[in-house]
Amino acid sequence: MTEPEQSRSIAAVDSLQTIDRRESQILAPYATFSKETRGRRYPESAHPYRGPYQRDRDRVVHSAAFRRLSGKMQVFTGEMGDYHRTRLTHTHEVASIARTLARALRLNEDLVEALALLHDIGHPPYGHAGEEALDECLAGHGGFSHNAFALTLVESLERRYAEFPGLNLSYEVLDGQRHRIDKKRVSRLEVQIVDLADSISYDAADIDDAVKLGLTTLSELAEVKIVAELLEEIRRRYRGVSASLARRELTRALIDLRVSCLLETAGRDLARHAFASADAVIEAGFQFSVDREVEEQIGQLESFLYQRVYRHAKLVRVRKAAQDRVRALFGYLCAHPERLPLFHRRRIAAVGLERACGEYLAGMTDRYCDRRYREWVAR
Ligand code: MG
Q1: How far is the centre of ligand 1, averaged over its atoms, from the C-alpha of 68 (Å)?
Q2: pLDDT in tens, 173-211
Q3: Residue 104's domain is classified under what CATH number?
Q4: I need a labelling partner for 76 at 20 to 30 A (CA). Which of 6, 46, 152, 267 fits?
C-alpha cells in the first residue's frame, strides 16, 4: 500500500462506527459479542471496519462451495423447471428469516447470517438422495454427512488464501456448525435461531414449489388444519383471489405465523430469564420454546409433505436414478483415481482413497455430476 493510500483509508476509518461501538448500542446482553470471540485457528489482526463474523459471512459468500449451491437441488431437480428453490435460494431464504428473528431479539445478526449462509454448504449433488448414496459408499470409511462435510470444506478444502488452508472462520461460527452434527449440547441463541429459520423456510417453500410443480394441490393441502385455516383467511380477505396468488399468500402467511409465534414466546422467555451474557444462556441450558399448538399443526403439515410430496412417484424415480449415478461414479473414481484433480489426488495420502473420491464427488453440482457420469461411466 502506498503512503497516500494508507492515510486515506485511516482517515476514512476514523469517521466510521466500529463494530464494538455498534454492538454495544444494539445487542442484548445475552447476544454473542464480536469483541468476545475466541478467535481463529490461524491468528489474524482485526479488520479496521468489519467485525469477525461479518468477515466470516463475506468469506462464505466468496467461497467456491457457496457459488456451487446454485447448481445443487433442494428438493426438486433442475429438469423440473426454474421456479422452485435451489440449495442457494433456500440458503438465502433461511438467512433472511434468521436475520429477521435475530434483529427483533437483538442477537448478533452478523453471526446469524454467517451461520445461515454456511448451514447447507456441505450438501453433495442431488440433495438428501445424493447424501444417502454417498453415505452408503463411504460406510466403511466414516460415512458421509453434509453437516460434517461443511466443516471439512471450510477448514481444509477451500483454497482462497495464501496464508492458510480453508476459510479460517471464527471459533463461534465453526462451533455453531458443529452443533448441527451434535444437537445434544445446548447452543448459543444465534445457532438456535438459524436452526428454527431452516425449518420455517423449507416447510413453506416446499408447499409453494410442490403445488407449482403439480405434485399436490391447495385443496389436497387443505386436509391439514393449519393450511385450511390460513387459506380460508386469505380467501375471505381477498375475495376471488386466483389459485396461484393464494398459493403465494399461503407461503407468506405460514412463514409470518411461525416467525411471529416464535418471537412472541422467545421475547417473553428472554425477558423472564434476563440473562446477563451469552454464556449464562448456555449454562442455564436455555432453549427457545415453541407454541405447542402451532408446532403440532406444523407436524401434521410435515407428515403431509413427507407422504404426499417427498414420496411422490415422480420424485422417487428421479431420486433413485440420481443415487445410482452417485454410486456408479464413486465406484469408477475409486478404480480410476488418476481421474481426480491433482488437489484431490493429493488428499489420498491424508484421508484415504475412498474419502478423497467422496470429497471430490460431494463438491460437484448436480449437472457436473451428470456430465461426469455420462463422460466416464455411461459411455
Ligand atoms: Mg437447510
Answers
A1: 15
A2: 999 999 999 888 889 999 999 999 999 999 999 999 999
A3: 1.10.3210.10
A4: 152
